[in-house]
């Protein structure tokens, strides 16, 4: 088991990673001093560990369709009916959309109750459950309504990953691949548990420096500006990690077009993404103009198009990137029908093997 601390000025917690760590939930609940708990789970009842206190179990569904303010309101209504107080806590058990929605509900209910995350997907374990960002979508874009609400603990049980289909594993590898360009070492030869720990350790160090996304934390959005636009443009037919992987390749090409990195570094973006079995081409059904319009709604965009890009000083936020340059790079990307784009990906690693 790995234990990675995340230490902030006003709040600290640990991220536990390894097989069976979900069984420590009752100990965590006791340490946090909660009398009662609400567990919101997108997984079967038998995958939900005992909390050690009186508990209400609520079903959830992973997926963007339920990542809405309506879902948050419904959860808060259940909290009221259960009589949840600020001395109690909420537990999320599911993928990244579940940790996001439950985290936001916990942040808003009574102006904040403790939340503990049990992420059950690779994507949630390496990224979504760590760092305290919670958000839901609006019709205009992804993650436009949210709050910063740090959890009391995060339990990344790698046993959960044995239940995932191939494509859901690939979804998580999209975030691991982008970590290569924001300060992580080359993770491709490591066992999966070590890849998860390295990704979490990197994110924890960044969040400790910049909890509220005012500077350094922007680099965690590497590949996400186009990634979020692709999710919206395809009606979420592309998973988040798949879209971020394509966005990472695009970020390398855009950095090259702006003279920030050389050709070898541009090629490295595609090599890393493809080595994880992830897609690297744009869906043929998407138009550059549509993607640019969606990217203008990105949270980082203040006056124009903004991207986190590689450069001589590493990854950093670049504001007001010329529309014409973005369009030129998008038009120059390889394209593939959406169905083929997903199907041509190679299988992801299992929990006890390393990526090739």
UniProtKB/TrEMBL annotation:
Pfam families listed in its UniProt record:
DHQ_synthase (PF01761), DHQS_C (PF24621)
What lineage does UniProt assign to this protein's organism?
Bacteria, Bacillati, Actinomycetota, Actinomycetes, Kitasatosporales
Enumerate the GO terms in the molecular function aspect.
Answer: 3-dehydroquinate synthase activity
The 3-dehydroquinate synthase C-terminal domain, residue ranges: 191-301
The name of this protein is: 3-dehydroquinate synthase
Checking Gene3D superfamilies in the record gives: 3.40.50.1970, Dehydroquinate synthase-like - alpha domain
Q: Which organism is it from?
A: Streptomyces monashensis
Q: Which domain of life is it from?
A: Bacteria
Q: Transmembrane segments in this chain: where?
A: none
**What's a single GO BP term from this record?**
amino acid biosynthetic process
Known cofactor(s): NAD(+)
The reply to whether RNA-binding figures as a keyword in the UniProt entry is: no
The record's section on CDD domains has: DHQS
What SUPFAM superfamilies has UniProt attached to this entry? Answer: Dehydroquinate synthase-like
Where the record annotates domain 3-dehydroquinate synthase N-terminal, the positions are 60-170
Q: Give the UniProt keywords, A-Z.
A: Amino-acid biosynthesis, Aromatic amino acid biosynthesis, Lyase, NAD
